[in-house]
Amino acid sequence: MARGRQLKTKNNECAYPLEAAAAAFFKNNQARGLAIATQDIYKIYVNTFIEWCGPNVSLGDITTTHFEEFILFKQNKGVKAVSIATHMKHLKRFFKFCIEKDYMDSIEVIIPKYEKEFKEPYTDEEMEKLLERPQSNRWTEWRNWAMINYFFSTGQRLSSVINIKINDLDLENSRVKLNWNKDKIKKYMPLSSAIVSVLKEYIKLSDLHEDDFLFPEYEGKQLKARSAEDSIAKYNRSRGVYKTSIHLFRHTFAKHYIMNGGNPAKLQKLLNHKTIEMTMKYVNLYGTDVASDLDFFNPLDRMNSNTKKTTKRRYIEN
Fold first, then answer.
1. Is pLDDT of 101 > 90?
2. Do 171 and 191 touch, CB atoms closer than 8 A?
3. pTM confidence score
4. Is the dihedral of CA 192, 198, 199, 201 positive or negative?
5. Rounded mean pLDDT of 243-248?
6. Nearest-angstrom CA–CA distance, 215 and 233
7. Among 10, 113, 272, 281, which is least packed by CB within 10 angstroms?
8. pLDDT of 192-203, one tens digit each?
């Protein structure tokens, strides 16, 4: 009988079905406490790939060619490059889990390159239309108006805002407690005087109480993200604004904050970004400091101002 160290073998990866690995992955995501929405996204992306692969496919069958063909399949269906890249990033996390669990050998998941789409924020003219006080007595219009004021004033994510209750507000000290954040850390965030005034009026008109959600459904239940998106889209179109993205208010807030001379480090805190790099994209797009004194320090402008001509040339010398 042979002695010494035995070679470690995989867990019979050639026979380990994709569906079983996916089930283990989904269970792990739940145990790690990922947000329900994030878990659902992983399920959609992984299950779509499994369905494309067909029945009876095992992890040992998967090669880089599968990823290449899946990407081509998506491209031929007219799926945007950024959407394909997002799908492959989620698959990469799934296969990384399988490799770490010794379900399969290491494999490279291809993520296609793409040009990041720049979505134009709301213009000043569009925001003026959206922020105009409602002329009707329809409660949903007042709620949507207050929500847009809130998004534009704070730059907070929809997932955080729909979880705010009245007792999370401290309007006397101009702050709000966010119990749901992407990083799962509860925190107090400041509120401007303008949004405090809007909220006081809206809460009084809506007759909201301590345990009510700040922006509820008509029946008083928590407003779902999809319902909020649909409601704001309808509100925007009714005001003659055909951009309908709630997330775009976050970009618009950041744009105005930077263009008004706001500090990038403070903006990082307000937007709850993990790194300053995520915030700097707004500085790079909208920062005006680099142009404010360009004419004074630019070498061409300086030289032209120091060498004023006293006569005009009549001819151009060859």
1. yes
2. yes
3. 0.68
4. positive
5. 94
6. 16
7. 113
8. 999 999 999 999
Taking CA atoms, 288 is separated from 130, 257, 282, in Å, by 26, 11, 11
Give dist(CA 94, CA 25) in Å, integer: 7
Read off the tokens for 140: 């949903």
- Taking residue 184's Cβ as centre, other Cβ atoms within 10 Å add up to 10
Q: What is the DSSP string of 75-144?
A: HHTT--HHHHHHHHHHHHHHHHHHHHTTSS---PPP----PPPPPPPPPHHHHHHHHSPP-S--HHHHHH
Percent residues over pLDDT 90 in the chain: 65
Residue 275 DSSP SS3: coil
The answer to whether 17 and 56 have CB atoms below 8 angstroms apart is yes
Q: Are the C-beta atoms of residues 93 and 42 closer than 8 Å to each other?
A: yes
Asked if 217 and 129 count as a contact pair (C-beta separation under 8 A), the reply is no
Q: Name the pLDDT band for 104 (thresholds 50, 70, 90).
A: very high
Give DSSP secondary structure letters for 212-240. SBSSB-TTSSBPPHHHHHHHHHHHHHHTT
Instruction: For residues 149 and 144, give the distance between their C-alpha atoms in angstroms, rounded to a whole number.
Output: 9
Token reading at 295 = 């004419």
3-state secondary structure of 291: helix
